[in-house]
């Protein structure tokens, strides 16, 4: 093991691993997991690829990056002191505020002393004889640990498009995920953005404010809805603070841990006028209400989904001056809410500006990137800056990029070739002592709410094992198969499962990611927690502990 500050001295036998637990990633999940493991008295090291804490909020510093979750539902809930000390500035915080928040948390709880930055994990191999993991960093440094905990996020493996000539471009270019820390000036610049997902929508809206000229290359338009962000006054923050117990309780009760609860009514049990009024109200309110707080059948019933999609299409037509441009911005191959809904702050209006034009690459496909710009079937464009908002190899991508080897050297990437197999999204059979915070097959949603629960459950399991001197924690094959079958069954009948998106594991830029797979649990967080609680209450007998 390398000599590093903060590495505890070995006190027992020569075979004791360097650490009791290694956590991969110092983002929202990793920071909290470290905090919890320290409470158990474990010797922990966190390996973080970046130079600072924050994960998603460290890397994604692209223009316009901000929450679509209400800030006051996104912060950690575990510390009353923290809740009392931290004032959110905006209802939907921008990236700099969130990065500041996570740094504040790291400092407040003195987390940095166990975090090793600029340490990207390249491989992790299980050793049966010592019941431990060998962890190998990209630069060759090696460590051993009893427990290996992944906190590597669901959207952390960014992907560039497989367009010929990407590397030949002579101007500035960047994927949004790897945005530089130094400010980038767009004034008088000819800028291209490729990609119109949630990231592209935020980036495009911001860049359009100052760019000399902006060209948006769109493959699939999105059903965007207004964010309605606003500043939080001191008085408002005090009210929010007083309401924190109810806020967090409500988030526990909703499907996706958001503040927005599904409306129990069906689209068809109200009159068309009531329906329209309800949707107008949702459209005028902040956040994901229109997606998460809508009628209960809009994401399962084709007719209901068509009606809400038509409502959103009308809104797009109202907001865009040129009808031909409006038609290009209206999705045709998927219904509202079946892909992740981007929340926007004036996105559609930017297409009314004279410095912005939209290229539908279904009509004129991108042929190649050239040294000076982008060539499509119809034209050659010159640019100073190309921004790739082309997304992620989601959910399993970050796992695929680490060479995880379990019992008998089995590769996790190969095991998951046809889709992930997990127990509760936390454990994998054949991979003892590997625990995943927010792994594949966990529910998605308001991330920190779910991540806190996941890290707490992992902590409870570790505590249970340590109290009994158990040093080998593994899912059974029956358990993993059972959960995987349940996850697949829970997505049946949901319209999102019929649509290509990162939520169904599609990434056309990654080999082997062209077939839809069920990547996450769609049964809702309350049901997920109930299942997890039952496993714990039964003394984890569904696991193989030794
Ligand atoms: P997304 O939602 O996966 O969006 C990626 C976008 O990039 C999407 O519009 C893609 O079109 C487009 N794309 C990807 N590859 C290409 C190529 N080769 N050519 C043209 N266009 C391409 O990623 P985001 O970063 O926006 O959002 C990810 C999540 O992060 C988001 O949901 C939030 O939860 C935070 P496509 O739709 O595939 O046709």
Automatic annotation (TrEMBL):
Gene3D superfamilies (UniProt xref): FAD/NAD(P)-binding domain
Species of provenance: Candidatus Entotheonella gemina
GO MF assignments: flavin adenine dinucleotide binding; N,N-dimethylaniline monooxygenase activity; NADP binding
Pfam families according to UniProt: FMO-like (PF00743)
Name by which UniProt lists this protein: Monooxygenase
Domain of life: Bacteria
InterPro entries per the UniProt record, alphabetical: FAD-binding_Monooxygenases, FAD/NAD-bd_sf, Flavin_mOase-like
Alphabetical UniProt keywords: FAD, Flavoprotein, Monooxygenase, NADP, Oxidoreductase
